[in-house]
Amino acid sequence: MDPIEVVDGGVIVTVWVVPGASRTEVTGLHDGAVRIRVAAPPEGGRANRAVVRQLAKTLGSRRVELRSGASSRRKRFFVGDVAADEVRRVLLAGG
After folding, report:
1. Tens digit of pLDDT for each residue in 16-51?
2. Which helix (H) or strand (E) holds 20?
3. Cα–Cα separations (whole angstroms), residue 5 to 8, 17, 68, 69
């Protein structure tokens, strides 16, 4: 299963979130999704906002939006104005 789906205006990235980690980082793949560990707790949407910030920083995009999975570990994020090949290179390197 490919965690990166090309859509109009960008890509959808399927993410497996590990909240409450010691630091925020992209750590490879988990069950067909990009694994992102975040230091934020899974309370009040803090972990979701941390993932948005991490994806924006890592991929250099200002347009990152949670599309589904707000209360689940498996989430789908839209990342705008980026090429799928670049997203794969950056997020899946070493994964």
Report:
1. 999 999 999 999 999 999 999 999 999 999 999 999
2. none
3. 10, 18, 14, 16
